[in-house]
Amino acid sequence: MKFIFSTNRQTSHGHLHQKQQQQQQQQALPCHGKNWPMGLLSQNIPTDVLVEVGEATFNLHKFMLVAKSNYIRKLILESNEPDLTRIDLSDIPGGPEIFEKAAKFCYGVNFEITVHNVAALRCAAEYLQMTDKYCDGNLAGRTEDFLSQVGLSSLSGALVVLKSCEDLLPMAEELNIVKRCVDLASAKACNEANFPSRSPPNWWTEELSILDVSSFQTIIAGMKSRGAKSLTLSSAIITYAERSLRDLMRDHSGNGIRSLDSDNSDARVRQRDLLESIVALMPAEKAVFPINFLCCLLRTAIFLRAAAGCKGELEKRVSAILEHVTVNDLLVLSITYNGARLFDLESVRRIVLGFVEKEKNVAVFNGGDFREVCSTAMLRVAKTVDAYLGEIATYSELSISKFNGIANLVPKAARKVDDDLYRAIDIYLKAHPNLDEIEREKACSVLDPLKLSHEARLHASQNKRLPVQIVLHALYYDQLKLRSGAEDTPNVPEAVTTRNQLQADVSLVKENDGPCALSS
Where is each BTB domain found (predicted)? Predict the structure, then answer.
């Protein structure tokens, strides 16, 4: 989006472009290092003022600048020097590049106004007092015309202008450029969310991702004020997070990322501030974000050592929809980016605990007994947690207390059978071969042998990794069933009686040299 500035407003578009190209060839503004001489009207008139903008210097003519800039006129008039030959304009918005265009305007040289530079040109015009009040058709008026006719005519244009304003504060706010961009962009974003004008329908969320987080916040606030739905806002936030935290918002693919030099490196601090700002923008509704996205965001928060409040908010959101979680989602929270070691288990523990407490409260409210009957959601979560334990069991740094700490969170009634838990324990014992008998018994303490299927008990009876007590339970329980002719799965009263009998008998058997006594 651009137009070619020209002093001749009557020129047609095609002729204007041709004329502009000719003028650029014939009236090129020479730039020799840091000295930029400008003598276009007459090669015989020497320059009489040096304008400094940062490290750049421009050799110009006072009379050309004064004709358009009231600020420069006043500097010359109010100077204590009888003949001012040096002017410092290092504070001009946009720096040397924008001043060069303002100078071209003063000299009547054509140049392009685009959505990328119009805000800076407008601010520079204000700084230099190049207003229509001082001179008709001045730079301020020309940039305002472009803003209204081109820059603020589309969502994409408004966002590019808003992006450019991030380096022009507070003047861009004082000139109302920021507000106009935000108002138009938020209105058009809401309209696109409801009535997409092109494919893919969420193209507008990609457009928002170019913004700094502070500008993005203002757009989200503007959309909220216009009644945007939580799902609409969440769509924009998801895209923004995935773009702005691109290297961190990934699953445990094993590809890894380059670790930052230190926890307090500038890059990590910026990313942490960005993440916390994104979380603060989230709508109050807990279920509007996919659980995989929340888990990736939480893992990023853990990695960046975000504030406890930020991590706690994400944990609550994951816990609220935990019935939709997959093993991979939980692994995202638990394993480093390169998959080499365990990352964090406390978040998983708090998430599961929060879900179990919620289920318990619902059961109490409905007058049920949480210890005996569990919801379908709880049963699903229990199965996922056991499968998750099987995945993390291979890591050598996983302690028995942490393994059991997560396993014990699942209510007994949520496991119809303990086969998945048995599998996880077996994997753990295989990955930790140096455990003594007491430690292996502790690792198996979460397992209920009465709730193993016949196939699992058969496997357990031949499993040399298991402590003697568990092997005895498996063998002896099958012998009791064969003698009684009972079904494989006892009811609760029978299970309690059988468990007590097993405990007593196993203790006697262990005193008589373990499993060999069973054969007598």
Answer: 47-115
Tokens standing for residue 200: 């893919």
* Residue 445 structure tokens: 């303490």
> Residue 231 and residue 219: Cα distance in Å, rounded?
15
What is the arithmetic mean of pLDDT over 8-33?
Answer: 35
Look at strands 86-88 and 49-53 and give their pairing: parallel
The full set of domain ranges for the chain reads 1-151, 469-520
- Report the C-alpha gap between 436 and 122 in whole angstroms: 77
Q: Rounded to an integer, what distance in angstroms lies between the CA atom of residue 305 and that of residue 302?
A: 5
Q: Give me the residue label for tokens 């480093």.
A: 336
Does domain 1-151 sit in CATH 3.30.710.10? Answer: yes
- Tell me the Cα Rg of the chain: 36
Task: Place 286 in a pLDDT band, splitting at 50, 70 and 90.
Answer: confident
Backbone angles phi, psi at 56, to 5 degrees: -90, 145
| The pLDDT of residue 379 | 93
- Tally of CA atoms within 13 A in the half-sphere of 70 that contains its CB: 14
Rounded Cα gap, residues 510 and 358, in angstroms? 42
